[in-house]
Amino acid sequence: QVHLAESGxxxxxxxxxxxxxxxxxxxxxxxxxxxxxxxxxxxxxxxxTSTNRTNYGDSxxxxxxxxxxxxxxxxxxxxxxxxxxxxxxxxxNIGIVDYFDRYHPSNNxxxxxxxxxxx
Length: 119
Fold this sequence. Notes:
This protein has no helices and eleven strands. With 119 residues, it is mainly β. Strands 2, 4, 5, 6, 9, 10 and 11 form a seven-stranded mixed β-sheet that branches. Strands 1-3-8-7 form a four-stranded antiparallel β-sheet, with no helix packed on it.
């Protein structure tokens, strides 16, 4: 199984920025970020395939940007204009990419990193 290592979470004030990173133990075809707030279901934040196809959740589109290295073993999530409702544990995921270059989350998750947006 591919191992994932996440970093970059923390406490930030509303309107601030954070950058998360996730490194896989080998190159993959797709990586993504999901998040889960207390009492809520896990939701997709952003995904990236090896062809640089991206997809964003409606609540973060225009504020967050996902990008990766050429080897597709590290993915970054740049989060700008953070809001209190962005507070959650953020999880990195290895994706299964189908013939149409669509991302499907696998059961391979990172340990999670806490992001707290509060004044």
